[in-house]
Amino acid sequence: QKKLQDSLGSGYHVAFGMRYQSPSIKSALEELREQSVDRIIVLPLFPQYASASTGSVQDKVMEIVKDWWVIPNISFISSFCDDEGFINAFATLGRQHMAKEDYDHVVFSYHGVPERHVLKGSDNGYCKLGSCCNSYNKRNKYCYRASCYATSRLLAAALGIREDQYSVAFQSRLGKDPWLTPYTDFILKDLPGKGIKKVLAYSPAFVADCLETTIEVGEEFREMFIEAGGEKWQLVESLNSHPLWVEAVKEMVLKN
């Protein structure tokens, strides 16, 4: 937050709020209100749009400001899955690992969502949970699955790897409903049998490290991979406060 504030300068006021923890979105909005800002730019820190994440933030913001007597202009940056700065920052972190080790394969593992969430938000039935995600366009720009594949293609290109050198998968499923496939814990167990022994793992649905990245992807998946016959499973750290990420956020704000 401080790095972004310093980068943007005194013409902007940066406030930070979380959907379910403290500091809250309400406290962040009140902070901006006290500054008498005439415009609020809301950037949910979810690269790929999903109603359960980005949509929930947007809903909460509007729920809060509807009770204000004076509501400033409000805009949302709903998705940045294909943002050049975001891709470049994450690719830079990956290249640092690739410079130290020769990896056989890259796995892009995203937080999963139920299939019905994706289908419910489909543009007039456009989404078929298949080849419709091979391109990213105005009809599927708010499709979570299409956004994940778009991020993966761009990261792969930035890393200089071929289509057969990476996999896209989804983690953290809950309940009995069908969730987006393939499941990460399924594919990682199959990789060693294909001669893939060293894997570089990304979790590009997150821009800051958390239990899901460090524990589930970084540790639990590594244990599964080693037990299946793999040799190395390396998690690429999240963007956190990396200078390239701070610059990417700054550019998104300035362009909005």
UniProtKB/TrEMBL annotation:
Would the keyword Phosphoprotein turn up in this protein's UniProt record? no
Q: Which reaction does it catalyse?
A: Fe-coproporphyrin III + 2 H(+) = coproporphyrin III + Fe(2+)
Q: Highest taxon of the source?
A: Bacteria
Q: Name one Pfam family in it.
A: Ferrochelatase
Which CDD domains is this protein grouped with?
Answer: Ferrochelatase_C
Q: Does the keyword Transferase apply?
A: no
Q: Which GO terms describe its molecular function?
A: ferrochelatase activity
UniProt keyword list: Heme biosynthesis, Iron, Lyase, Porphyrin biosynthesis
InterPro entries in alphabetical order: Ferrochelatase, Ferrochelatase_C
Q: Which is a GO BP term held by this UniProt record?
A: heme biosynthetic process
The EC number(s) given in the record are 4.99.1.9
Q: Which family does it belong to?
A: Belongs to the ferrochelatase family.
The record's section on PANTHER family has:
FERROCHELATASE (PTHR11108), FERROCHELATASE, MITOCHONDRIAL (PTHR11108:SF1)
* Protein name in the entry: coproporphyrin ferrochelatase
**Organism for this UniProt entry:** Pontibacter qinzhouensis
